[in-house]
Each structure stands twice: as structure tokens, then as C-alpha cells.
Amino acid sequence: MWIVVLLSLFMPRLIIAAMVVMGDYIGRAYQNDFWAFVGFLFMPYTTLAYAWAINEHGSVSGWHAAVLVLAVLLDLGSNGGGSKEVRRRRKRGEG
After folding, report:
1. DSSP three-state, residue 16
2. Does pLDDT of 78 surpass 90?
3. Does the model's pTM come out above 0.90?
4. How far apart are CA 45 and CA 81, in angstroms?
5. 10 Å Cβ neighbour count for 39?
């Protein structure tokens, strides 16, 4: 279990894909495949945290909500860091 958690921090999309192929863990958490796919593309940490909360607790409350908020912050930080780097390079004239 801890191996999956550690791998999900470094390769969340790979873990989501493996969960979809090997079982129904992601499918049980989401009502339809659209939101799981959108989460896979744009918010993979949040997608995994939500699936964990729903599958383990049945809802997003308490400790599970705190983990979900942390996942949202991780997603926003990882997505925002790339655009910040692009702006920095443009400002310096590198690309």
C-alpha cells in the first residue's frame, strides 16, 4: 500500500491508469467517466485523493477532506510552476 502512495506522488497519472486497467477503484468513486478523465488530465492528485476518500470513507469529510485540500494545492502548485518558469524565461529572453 505505501509503495502505491509513494509512486502516486511522483507518477499520479500512471497510477490512475493502472487503477483503471487493473480494477474498478477509480470507477467506483466517480459517477461517470468524464470527471475521472478530466481529473486525469488536469488534477491527477485531486482525482486520486477523491477516489481514496470515497472508496475508504464513503464521503469527503474530516481527515479525508484535509487530504483532498492538500491534493488540490499540490495540483495547483505543480500546474502553476510551469507557467511561472515560462514567464521567467520570456522575461530573460531565453525562449
Report:
1. helix
2. no
3. no
4. 15
5. 23
CA 83 to chain centre: 18
Which of 16, 9, 12, 55 minimizes the C-alpha distance to 33?
16
Q: How far apart are CA 19 and CA 48, in angstroms?
A: 10
Q: Which three cell numbers stand for residue 85?
A: 518558469
- Nearest CA-CA partner of 6 in 65, 48, 66, 62: 48
**How many structural domains is the chain composed of?**
1
CB 69 within 8 A of CB 46: no
Place of cell 488534477: 43
What are the respective helix, strand and coil percentages of the chain, to the nearest 5? 85, 0, 15
Residue-range definition of the domain harbouring residue 79? 2-92
